[in-house]
Every structure is written in structure tokens, then in C-alpha cells.
Amino acid sequence: MTRKKVSEVRVREETSPLLRDVNMTMPPTCSGLLCLSLLLGKSLLVSSVQVVTTGQQNISLNGKWTLENSNGSLSLPAEVPGCVHTALLKQGYIQDPYYRFNDVAYGWIALDNWTYTTTFTVPSDMRAKQRVMLVFEGIDTISTVSLNGAAVGRTDNMFLQYDFSVGALLTEGDNVLTVSLASPVRYAAQRSEAHSYRVPPDCPPEVQRGQCHVNYIRKEQSSFSWDWGPSFPTAGLWKGVRLEAYDVLRVVHLATVPVYNQTSSGWSLQVELQVEVVAEVTRGQLTLSLPGLDTRQTFPVQFLPGRTRNTYTLHVTTSGAVELWWPSGHGDQPSYPLTLQGVLGPGLTFTADTKVYFRTVELVQEPVPGSPGLSFYFRVNGKAVFMKGSNWIPTHSFQDLVSPAVVRSLLESAVAANMNALRVWGGGVYQQDLFYSLCDELGVMVWQDFMFACALYPTEEDFMDSVREEVRQQVRRLKSHPSVVLWSGNNENEAALATNWFGIPGPERPLYVKDYVKLYVDNIRALVLEEDQSRPFLASSPTNGLASERQGWVADDPYDPRYGDSHYYSYSRDCWDWGAFPRTRFASEYGFQSWPSFSALQKVSVPEDWSWDGPFSSHRQHHAEGNRQMLEQAGLHYHLPNATDPLRRYRHTLYITQVMQAQCVKAQTEFYRRSRSEVVGGKGHTMGALYWQLNDIWQAPSWSSIEFGGKWKMLHYFAQRFFAPVLPVGFEDGVSMVMYAVSDLSVDLNLTAQVSVLSWSRLDPVCTLSSPATLVRGNSATPIFRQPVDALLEGCGNCTRRSCLLAFHLEDPHGARWGPANHHFLCSPRDAEGIEAPNITAEVRGDGERGYTVTLRSTSVAPFVWLDAGDVAGRFGSNGFLMASRSREVGFVPWGPTSAEELGRALTVTSLRDVY
Ligand code: BMA
Question: Contact 638/911 with Cβ under 8 angstroms?
């Protein structure tokens, strides 16, 4: 038997001097932004007599449960929150599911049904409450819940919180709670079979080694496999479980949304309070106060029995003093404490403390001078903001293993790479509260997809009911966060219909378009507009936005660069050729794959796996032809690794894929950033670059810039530079070498391009030149340098395209540098003449306190110098750089305890010349 801990709350005595404080039950119910504490009624001791019982008591049912499979052959302890896979792992029934080929070996787990059981007792005073609710914060996914043998309810959506009223079922002594979970894979198959017409895609491509029909189940879509992830269709109680008992009411949810009135230049705050009421509250009072803004207001409240939502508008008295929340790089993220105090009857009060942030956001789609289309950009607090960032996928197949530290490390890494935005992609999960709170604090704008991706979806009534509840709950949970700047209906489903990914015969198309509009427009959009008008809604990504709407929500070509956002991938075209990239209004996805580090792979493989052509390499690659494509793209510009030692060659191949990826995404991102101020042939005015993808779900090749475990790939170090607020961009336009100064700053700058012509064969510049000073307006991309390449090289003397390259940076008239240094290859490094083995040596100094310094010494110019600290977690100050000096110091900040010796032992340094 498991006895659950009853947590405590202090209850205030208010009316009689005979009453004194007693301990009562009530855990802190802090979730993200909101920290609610209810002080409702009390159990009072008058002399020795127990009187009155109003007030809320909670019991957590988290902790050890038991878990059993359908035929009873497996019975084990299981942690809640958790899932079947992690329970089996913890109890030693299975090995690390990420190890080698285990994803396939453990396919049986998702084909079985599993039952979670717990036994608990409930104090009599709690049972005596008017209402006892059994609250599941999240059940994954298809389940039947029973208490003491009686059915309590069913669940079919992992994105929902479920509340069941169970007061009548609780008994004295042991209560037995069971949650019986059906195989998600079998359930999906049954639903598809029962459906009157096909809803494609049926199954993922063979190469993903996944499961079919995930679109029929409201669960993380990538859990049945994806092109970067394994198939682990989880089942479990993935979030907390508790009992809540009360007599009068409980607060179900609280949200705050700031509203700016343009006409009066005044701020108000909409405070939304949802309560579940047992006994009517007729003459209550609610006081809202924002002490930081000298604002306080009291409202009369009346709550009728049942679930009601009540909105109170608090007018900010000192609107002029409001300090705004800004995206990172554009200002600070100040917050204001807000207190709610409810007096709901004699002895019945509640208080809540939360934080509010003030900002406005618009998605601007309006005519662009000189262009046939519409703009597409975000305006925050009236200012156009270029979105720089990436796409977020689930950080683990088993959500219960996602620690706060992992979320924090990834978000901090995003901001450290000068990102100001992330798209929470629609094939994963709505993130935990902590994610959004950290985005608020860090100034990360969140493009929030609803969880639908790369598929068509059924729209029968029970499915729609579940989706509607999902949208309501998620919008209510997240709308207080200033970081969330956009709701978006789905990932690529408009495109899937428009360009007929699934080969739907012409006559059947209207049926699918009707389903599409029903789901994303008539339901999701309608609900979002009802729940939250403070931020924009987009039906899909990519989309033509308003132009898609005009075409009945499915555009002929949702990839039209003159409208909306776009996704663009080409692995075969030369990624150095910027002419290949769409000059889009907003690039919300683009990218290239690479392999993670050897140290990451080592943890899930054995020596026989360490070959490019072996079964392990193809097993982990879930994108058809991915490994071939990477090497073909790399081969366009670099010599491919040719070491005779197989391990050396394997490691060099991992390296070369990262070089290729970093350089390709750099080329594309720099193209987007320099296109922000221009319209060329009706296209341009690009205002967003979110590459695919930020993070990884396991140790495998993918488009990520941060590998599983948190280590930055070369791309992430590149991103830190190519997303810098001020950036010099160099490219060739016909015969000319051109440089732009890109600035996301609000101030105007006067800048020159300082250009050094370097020779591959020596460490000192062949010559240097500088452009005349140019006015670079804030928030613009301004051409600053143009010269025919031939003339430039001739003027420099002994240089050809093959023997030389360009390094450049920006300076103001006082000689101060703005932004990072950049460089431009005048030929592919594979054709370059004079690249020599640089014989780089590294020396590590320092202590844990202030981090470490690595001193590199080189005998020649070395491109793509890569420092890898192996298993020593942390990050370098810079990495993957062009080394054009005899020595260079690079900082290293460890993420855990280490020493100079340990770092020195683990450190490897690779540069391009080392691999062939
Ligand atoms: C995009 C994404 C994902 C996918 C990625 C790489 O379209 O939306 O579905 O992982 O491409 O193929």
C-alpha cells in the first residue's frame, strides 16, 4: 500500500479569538507564470470541538505506482509522472532504448496494453468535502480510469488535463486507482480502419522504421517516428496526478492579457478567472493590484454553481510608466507583480500572485511598394522585428525525462547564439510551463504551432470535441506569456493539400479541403479568436497568409515567396549558390543535415558501428538518402575524408558533415538577413530566418544545431555569428564582390568595410583595403562595398581566386569594430592552392572558477578549426572558425566540474586539411 503525503497550508483565523491556526492540506500549486494559493475556509478548533469545514485540500498521487502489462507477465513499480518505457528501463527490464538498434527491438512495448495502479488513503475530513476532483495533468493517451472498481472516465488526448469528480467513490481505508492504457499503435490502426475514407499518410516512409496512422490519435505526432527521430509510441501518466477537495469553489485557471488602447494610449489588463463552484458565491469581492504601477481596483464578484469564466478589466493608472517587454536584442523583459485577493464569503478568501509583462504584437501583411505580394513580418510594440532563430522539436522521446536543466540549457544556448525567436513545431508537444516562463525572461518570441503536422486529419465528432478542448486548454494555459507571439494551426498541411503530397485523386480533393477548413478554420481558428485576440493566428506554415485565406485557405502555391512564410529545402543544389534560395518574405524552415559528435554516438554504439557504410549509420538515418546527400553536398566544396585508419576516417566524416551544414545554413541565413531592406523582382523584404532545427531527440543525424546532450554543433557556433545584431555579409553578384552591413540595432551607424585579402599559403594578409564610410540605418541591410573580383585581386598583387580568400569586418570612423569578422571563399576549399597542414597545437590553462583558456598555435591558415571537448560538457567562446593567425585564445566554459588536465586530455582539434 502506498500512503500519499498530505501537504500543508496555513489557514488564517479571521472571526473569533477562540479560533487558532491549524495545519491543513494544500500543496503549492505553482505552475509557470501563476502561483496560486487558496486559503479557503478552514477546519477550526473551537475549544475541543471540531467545527466548520470549508477550504481546499490537495493530495498528490505522484510517486510509486505499479504497472502491469495485459497478460500480467510483467508487473513492476513505476514512477508517476512517467511512462512505460522509462519504468521498464528503471527496473532493468530493458536497456537504454536509444542504444544501437533498441528502438526497433522494443517495438513490442507500444503494442501491448498497460495498467497503472496505485493505492491511497484519504482523510475523512477530505472525503467529507462537497466535491473531490481527481486531476490528471496529462495522460498519454488512450485510457480508462477506474476508482475502487468503478469507471471514472476515459481519455483520448495527451494534450488535455482531465478532471473527474470522484467524491462519491472514495472510501475509508484503501482506495485503488487504476488507469488502463490501450496500445496507441493498435488504437490508431483501429481508428483508421473504422474511418469511412482514407486519411493519409497511412504509414511513414520505410526508412523511418515507424508506426502507422498517428494522425488518428491526439498524441505527439513524432512519437510514431520522424525523419530525425525514433519510433517510441509512449504510454503513461506523463504529468502529475492529484486529488483536490473543496466545499465552495476551486480556481481552475487564471490568465492575464495586457491590452493597449491606441486612442487613449492606455494599458489595461484583462484578468480571466475560471472557477468551479459548488455553493453559489453571491457577494464576494476581488481586488487586483499592480503595485509597481500604482494600480489597484476592487470588483464585486458573483459565482454561480458550475464552471464559469469571469473576466475583470484592470485599468492601469500610470500607463505612461509602463516598461515594455522586448524580444532579446531589442530591449529588456521587465515584469510587474500582480496580486489577486478574493474575499468570497465569511472566512473564504483566495490569493494569487503572478507576473505580468506588457507588449503588443502584430503580424503585418500589407502591400509592399514595388511588389505584387504582401509583407509578412512581426511588429512588436510598434517596431518591425526581424525574427532570428530556429525550430524546436521534442527534446526527448520520453517527456518525463525532460529535466528543467535541459530546457534551460537549450533556451540559453538559443539566446547565446543571438536568436530572438523559436518555433514550437506542430509535430511535437506543447511545451511545459517552464519553457514559456524562460522564454518570457529571456526575450525569446515563440511561434506556437498547434500539434498537427505533415498529414491530413480526420474530423469526426469525437475527434473534434477532443481537439476543441485541447485548443481551449492550451490557449488558456499559454496566453499570459508575452513570449508567445503567434498561434499557428499546423505544420505543412496546407502545403500537403496544395501540392498533393498524398496523391489524392482530383475528384476527392474537395472532401479533404472541407475537412481542412473545418479543423483549422471553423474550429481551431474560431476558438482561438474566442479565447485570445491579443496575438495573431495563422492557419498553417508555410502559407501565403491572407492570400491563402482568399483562396479558401488552401493556396495554389503556399510556397509563393511574395506572400506569407516559406519552407525551403534542397540538398542537391549547391548551397553556396545564393541564387538558389527563394527570396521569401519570411523563412520559417530551411536546413541541412549533419551528424552529431563522436562522443555523443559513442554512448549508444559499439566499435563495430563506427563506420559510415555500416548498419548503424543507416539505422540512425531516418531521412531517405540523407547520408549520401550530406557527402554529395560536402563533396561540392571539400575533399572528402580519406584516412586509411577506419576510425579516423569515420570521425572525419562526422566532422565534414558539420562543416557542410554550418557553411550551407550560413550562406542561406546571410542571404535572408541581407534581403530585409530590398525588393528585387517583386521579391524580398525578408523579415525572418528560422532554420530547421534547433535541438535533437536522440543521437542521430539531423538538421539540428545542438546535438542530443546539449553540445553545440559547428552550426550553432556559426549561428552565434550569422545572427549577430550587426553583421557584415559578403557575396558575389555576377562579376562583383559585394558586402552588406546588416543591423538589427535601432541606432544609425557610420561604417566602413575593412577587407583583408589573405593567401592560403601564408599567415599575413597580402593586402588590405577599406570602403568609404556609409550610413547604415538602424534595422536595415545596406550595401557597403562593391568591386569586381578580378580588379580586387589584381590590385592586390600576387593573388588568384584559387590562392586567396577574403576576410572582412565592419568599423566605425573611430576604429571601433561592429559585429563579428566574416570571410568569403573565392573558390571551393577543395580547389584552393596552398592550403597546408596547419599542425595546430592546443594548450589548456585555467581553473573551474573562471573557466578555461585554450591557446591554439598554427603554422598556416586553417579553415573550419574545430575544438571538441569530448565528454567534458560545456561550450567554447568560438569554434569552427577560420584561423588566420599564428596563435589564438579560445575560452571554454564547462557545464560541470572539470579540470585543465581533464579538458586537455579530452580535447581534439581538427581543421579542414586534416581530413584528406
Ligand atoms: C520540415 C519539418 C519536419 C521535418 C523537416 C525536415 O518540413 O516540418 O517535418 O523534420 O522538414 O525534413
Answer: no
Q: Is 449 in the pocket of ligand 1 (CB under 6 A)?
A: no
- Give mean pLDDT, residues 703-718: 98
Phi, psi for 215 (deg, rounded to 5): -70, -10
Question: 159 pLDDT band (50/70/90 cuts)?
Answer: very high
Cell numbers standing for residue 44: 477550526
**What is the per-residue pLDDT for 19?**
25
- Atom nearest to 426 CA in ligand 1: 8
393-420 average pLDDT score: 98
Cα torsion through 82, 87, 89, 93, rounded to 10: -160
Q: Are 392 and 430 in contact (CB under 8 A)?
A: no
Q: How far apart, in whole angstroms, are the C-alpha atoms of residue 445 and residue 326?
A: 9
- Dihedral sign computed on CA atoms, order 620, 623, 624, 627: negative
Tell whether the model's pLDDT for residue 228 goes beyond 60: yes
Question: Strands, E, within 236-386: which ranges?
Answer: 241-246, 249-261, 266-277, 281-290, 295-303, 306-315, 336-345, 348-356, 361-364, 377-380, 383-385
With a pLDDT cut of 90, the percent of the chain lying above it is 90
Q: Is the pLDDT of residue 405 over 70?
A: yes
Mean pLDDT (whole number) for 791-803: 94
Helix ranges (H only) for 182-281 are: 184-194
What span, in angstroms and rounded, lies between the C-alpha atoms of 229 and 9?
44
Residue 440: CB within 6 Å of ligand 1? no
| 17 band by pLDDT with thresholds 50, 70 and 90 | very low
Name the residue with the closest Cα to ligand 1, atom 8: 491
The residue from 68, 220, 531, 589 that is catalytic is 589
Locate 809 and state its grid cell: 569586418
Q: What angle is formed at CA 194 by the lines to CA 192 and CA 198, rounded to 5 degrees?
A: 45
3-class SS of residue 223: helix
Helices (H) and strands (E) in the chain, counts: 18, 53
Q: Which atom in ligand 1 lies closest to the alpha carbon of residue 454?
A: 9
Q: Which residue has the cell 509592399?
A: 368
**pLDDT (average), residues 169-183:** 98
228 lines ligand 1 (CB under 6 A): yes
Q: Whose CA is nearest to atom 9 of ligand 1?
A: 454
| Mean pLDDT (whole number) for 669-676 | 98
**893 phi, psi to nearest 5 deg:** -105, 115
The type of residue at 866 is: W
Structural contact between residues 154 and 233, judged by C-beta atoms closer than 8 angstroms: no
Sign of the CA dihedral with 593 first, then 599, 602, and 604 last: negative
Considering all CA atoms of the chain, what is the largest pairwise distance in Å, rounded to the nearest integer? 102
What does the block give as the cell for 640? Answer: 572528402
State the pLDDT confidence band at 40, using cuts at 50, 70 and 90. Answer: very low
User: What is the Rg, in whole angstroms, of the alpha carbon atoms belonging to the chain?
Assistant: 30
Q: Is 172 a catalytic residue?
A: no
Residue owning the nearest CA to atom 12 of ligand 1: 227
- Pull the grid cell for residue 200: 493519409
What pLDDT sits at residue 351?
85
**Is pLDDT above 90 for 10?**
no
Cα separation, 304 vs 279, whole angstroms: 8
Instruction: Indicate the helix (H) or strand (E) that contains 165.
Output: strand 162-165
| C-alpha to C-alpha distances, 141 to 83, 133, 149, 451, nearest whole angstrom | 11, 20, 21, 14
CA distance 323 to 258: 12
The stretch 303-314 carries a mean pLDDT of: 94
Full strand arrangement of the beta sheet holding 851-857: 841-847, 851-857, 887-894, 874-876
Beta bridge partners of 353: 35, 339
**Among the options 492, 494, 670, 811, which is catalytic?**
492
CB 736 within 8 A of CB 786: yes
Told to judge if 589 belongs to the known catalytic residues of this protein, a careful annotator would answer yes
Looking at the chain, the whole-number percentage of residues with pLDDT higher than 70 is 94
CB 646 within 8 A of CB 612: no
Q: Any residues with CB less than 8 A from the CB of 256 and at least 6 apart, and which?
A: 269, 270, 271, 272, 338, 354, 356, 480
